[in-house]
Amino acid sequence: MNCSSSTLVYLLRYPTAIITSSQAKQLHAHIIKSKGSRAASSNFGSIILSVYAKVHLLRDSLLLFNTLQSPPSFKAWKSMIRCCASTGNFIETLNFFKRMLAAGKVPDKNVFPILLKTCAHLRQLSLGQSVHGWVIKLGLDSDLFTGNSLMNMYGRLDSFQVVFSSETHLTENERLAGVAEASDGRREAMAASSPVESVTKIFESMPVRDVVSWNTVIGGYAERRMYTEALSSVRDMGNVGMKPDTYTLSSILSMIALSADAMKGKEVHGYAVRHEYDKDVFIGSSLIDMYSYCSRINDSHAVFQQSSQRDSVSWNSMIASCVQNAEFYDGLKVFRDMVMSNVKPVAVSFASVLPACAQLSTLSLGKQLHNYIIRNGFDENIFVASSLMDMYAKCGNLKIARWLFDRMEFQDTVSWTAIIMAYASHGHACKAISLFDQMEMEGVKPNSGSFLAVLTACSYGGFVDEGWKYFHGMTRDYGVSLGVEHVACMADLLGRAGKLEEAYKFITETHIQTGSIWSTLLSACRVHKNVELAEKVSKQMLMLDPEYVSVYILLANVYIAAGRWKDAAKLRRSMKKKGLRKNLACTWIEVKSKVHVFASGDESHPDYLKIKETLEDIMERMEAQGYIPDTSAVLHDVDEEEKGQLLSAHSERIAIAFGVMSTPEGTTIRLSKNLRVCVDCHSASKYMSKILKRDIIVRDLTRYHHFKDGSCSCGDYW
Q: How far apart are the C-alpha atoms of 666 and 694, rounded to whole Å?
């Protein structure tokens, strides 16, 4: 930096013109060169310290501060406090505040916002109260910026009680900051029972409020889902002539998203359009998210399409919205369009799109994304790594999923939960339970999903005692609230183990009763051929929802398993009369990066004749090995030969035959099915894996079946 005499004078008068650390150091050097020993005076030192603080040069600031020839000025102290806070050295911030007080310097309104930010970062409520006491003691509580900082601090310090009493003890940090002198002011500061009330009291006492003040209050309500209060504050804001800004609207939209109130969302959307806030990229992304949470994916698409500017945030919001609403192909398409639009994917892009690959079992596309992730260095991101692990597990490759888990530098609750659920779903119940215990031993706190994963393992493995242990422990030991999924999993565990009456009693005594919970017991009644209990359970389900399709289908299966064909036919007629239809069974397989979908009895595929020929050959070889069709799985009252023909046309067999003729010998065949695998197809798949000498991995509605050498990973316990 060329620094003439006039330039130096200008920079000393307007030091804010310095914007880089190198410029700051050069200015300091020129002062030393031109002023000699006077450069160490408090006046020049204070100017340089303010410049160093602005560009976050803490080490240089400390060296200069400690070499000042005369007592530091108030400006010098303030610069040191600001520099320590801006570089994250919060304890040093407090230390300099204490030293400043000891030097007889009185803090002004510019110091307290820095100290309040420090209290929030240190999570020290009592320290924040003490600083608040100083604010009141010096009469600065009416200052707008200080008031906003106070509200921000109390808003961030959640989970604490803001109660002042004479018995309050000073913490070590308070003593360090020298705040004992403010104890009297602190007691008089406020009397509130929660951070939200503290924010509200400060807000109400402020003589002047700006948009930041209103946004702090509204944001606090929104974060705590205080729906009525937040909307009321927005109305009050408008009534006093204060116009909401983009932050206000985004806070409200995030709250509306959580409450899934689409009508309120549309009102806010209308306001945004009228005031042209909808052109803001951040508001656009918030609208996309809001409509997504309200299950109005078409509205999300409309907002996205109407956006004149699309940044990475809006693209990623649209991808996540599609995937969250089970529009997996659309999610992949939006991701592809984003790349084609030269918007570079970031970590959250992959964390959003990989679940689409997982749900569609598109392993080849998942591998392509994995390759891109590695090339761009996103594989170290814990969220991306967890999504990759989940994708491989759901695409049937548990080995790579475990490899990814083991190489993660840090394993959080999400990654532990994903690997536990992966082992559970693939039939490795003991390993899943072992991993859960290991997670606990390593000090990682399990969450609701973690307990669902270990309960699933217990259910698939038939471990009743262990299931009860984890079920009771989740609320007793970890304070995790019971959800529908946990109760359904426990009911499923008891039902699979043949403890039908115990399962019935368990469900009737729980405070959570839904059709999905009862359906697990109804499925167990089919397996154990308990018609009487099945009818009782069906009545309970129909009371909850008279048009619950699964009730009719599951009960019909129970009747058929018991040979009561007339009752099953009566149920079908009832379904037809009500206009209820069973989902068509279909199976899909990915071959050469293309997904092929087959329905039961499907003859529409271009290669159907070749598929039929391949399947007939496989069936002949199976029968030669002793395969006998289990016709109890046929839901039609026809002769045994026709039942066998119906079974051979099931969608998973057609898909396996297509996989055999389309891939080299020895290649693993991976299928996904929209319903549970029937008993006979399960038996047939075991025979196929043996005679074809191939691994066959089937992902059905509830779990994975890994067929190898004539056996299944589920151990026939499913």
A: 5
Q: What is the distance between the alpha carbons of residues 312 and 302, in angstroms, rounded to a whole number?
A: 17
Q: What is the pLDDT of residues 600-626, one digit of tens each?
A: 888 899 999 999 999 999 999 999 999
Taking the CB of residue 634, how many other CB atoms lie within 10 A of it?
19
Length of the chain measured in residues: 718
CA nearest neighbour of 214 among 244, 169, 184, 259:
244
Q: Is 435 helix (H, G, I), strand (E, B) or coil?
A: helix
Residue 188: is its pLDDT beyond 60? no
The closest alpha carbon to 567, from 656, 483, 616, 635, belongs to 635
pLDDT for the residue numbered 667 = 93
| End-to-end CA, the chain | 76
Look at the pTM and tell me if it is higher than 0.70.
Answer: yes
In terms of Cα–Cα distance, which of 271, 273, 305 is closest to 288?
305
**Residue among 662, 660, 587 at smallest CA distance from 617:** 660
What is residue 259's predicted lDDT score, i.e. its pLDDT? 81
Cα 99 to Cα 93, 163, 177, 540, 649: the distances in Å are 10, 28, 8, 72, 84
- Tell me the three state secondary structure of residue 373: helix
Q: Which residues pair with 673 in a beta bridge?
A: 587
**Phi/psi-derived region of residue 579, left when phi > 0, alpha when psi is between -120 and 50, beta in every other case:** left
Q: Which amino acid is at 338?
A: M
CB 602 within 8 Å of CB 611: no
Q: How far apart are CA 318 and CA 323, in angstroms?
A: 9
Measure the CA–CA gap between 420 and 127, rounded to whole angstroms: 42
For residues 684 and 653, give the distance between their C-alpha atoms in angstroms, rounded to a whole number.
8
DSSP-derived secondary structure letter, 296: -
Tokens standing for 706?
Answer: 């890994």
Rounded (to 5) percent helix, strand, coil in the chain? 65, 5, 30
DSSP codes joined into one string, 16-78: GG--SHHHHHHHHHHHHHHHGGGGGSHHHHHHHHHHHHHTT-HHHHHHHHTT-SSPPPHHHHH
**Distances, alpha carbon 372 to alpha carbons 280, 365, 388, in Å:** 30, 11, 12
Between CA 43 and CA 263 the distance in angstroms is: 61
Distance of CA 559 to the CA centre of its chain: 42
Q: Which residues contact 453 (CB under 8 A, 6 or more apart)?
A: 417, 420, 421, 424, 432, 436
Q: Which residues of 513-524 are buried (b: 16+ CB within 10 A; e: fewer)?
A: bebbbbbbbbbb
Rg (CA), the chain: 33
Q: What is the pLDDT of residue 189?
A: 45
